[in-house]
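Dear Dr. H.,

I hope your travels went smoothly. While you were away I took the liberty of generating a structure for the chain from your last submission, since the lab meeting agenda had it listed for discussion. I wanted you to have the full record in hand beforehand rather than looking at slides cold. The sequence, exactly as received, is reproduced here:
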Amino acid sequence: MEYEAIIGMEVHVQLLTKSKMFCRCSADYAAAEPNTHVCPVCLGMPGVLPVINRKAVEYTIMTALALNCQIPEYSKFDRKNYFYPDLVKGYQISQYDLPLSRNGWLEVEVDGKRRRIGIRRVHLEEDTAKLIHVHRNGESYSLIDFNRSGVPLMEIVSEPDIRSPEEARLYLLKLRTILRYLGVSTGDMEKGAMRCEANVSLRPVGSEGYGTRVEIKNLNSFRSVKLALEYEIERQKRILAAGGTIEQETMGWDESRGVTVLQRSKEYAHDYRYFPEPDLPPLVIERGWVEEIRARLPELPDAKRDRFVARYGLSRYDAGVLVADRAVADYFEACVRAGAGRVEPKTIANWVTGELFRLMKAKEVEIGQVEITPDMLVALIGMVQDGAISTTAAKEVFAEMFETGRAPDEIVRERGLAQISDVEALSRVVEEVIAANPKAVADYRAGREQALGFLVGQVMRATRGKANPKLANELLLEKLKHEQGRS
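The corresponding predicted structure, in token form, is as follows:
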């Protein structure tokens, strides 16, 4: 029997607010000593009262709007009760039946086809503390750092509309791009700013119902998500093929072994004993505030991609690559403005997605760390277009610009890379090459077109690669035609 996968994603996102969700403690804890960004509120001391972080609510509504969600007029916070060492109060302040948003969607492109993934809800809660497991001198124990406890955490829950591990990966990539465009989170999975769980079940192809779903945790990279889902789908297929049944369980992803492992039986909503948070008032979300937030939304990736295609004549693929990072898209447009009327946007796009991306990857730097200014890149491309340097030399100059931040003309002058485009000087070299290679000349006149390429190569060799290849080709054709006319 053939099965299809039914996948839903739960994504937790740390918000870039200055303070925590319900207290004044700094939310910027990454470089802090353990347990230094804490107070009685985030330590869950008796008698303390939480206060809602308005900026966190605003960021959640902003994200929900970007994901095409509906924003209700009323929302509230709830207590989600469970007991675990990293949950200091014995409950988490979260949202249940009245979240800040619901019923949205996000589009991804898979194998050239657009797929719309439903967003069930985007809601707000607080993060837990961090457990640090220690194995030392034959002993094992755990330490707790409460710096993360109470940091604003936004949860984005998809509908079970995802049909493959690759689609899940693309969904997460698109979601992170939107979060970064909005400036609400770094979306850095490796640093825990974006964490996700996947729910996956199987059903016979063509059926409408759902199978028993299994949750997968400990997914800390896009690669892990894809690999874990691929493994779990195959595991469930083997069980069903053998006549077994799937249990509703929570699995962990073991990266080193490449397998999912059982953690516990899956909880249901009623296990958490949700009830309204008595220390926080219900939220009344004014329509004017929502529309004011909507008006501040930046141009989002899909809209920017479509504009790049329409305005700059880029392919949909090239535009998609550029807009995947807002800073890269901004850099590209700054280059286009710098080269207005002189350099085609497509040429700029080729340099950005080609040489620039290659060096950024090799040096492991972000676009904000690149020292090549838009004016410098346009100047370099202009030198190629004007015949001042060859494309090969330009790549050499570009690498030096990337390392030092120096101007292209300065590097060309220092390294003697200027291309020979002087007709008179190059004509003399062409004549010498024709005289020195009678066989190649005869081959060309006999109809062997590849002989012309050989002669161009000889001109480049004689000039140590400095000859303008286009001009060399033109002069050779002219001289060969002239010589043939005289013979």
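Two observations you may find useful: Residues 299-415 form one domain. Residues 222-241 form the longest helix (20 residues).

With kind regards,
E. W.
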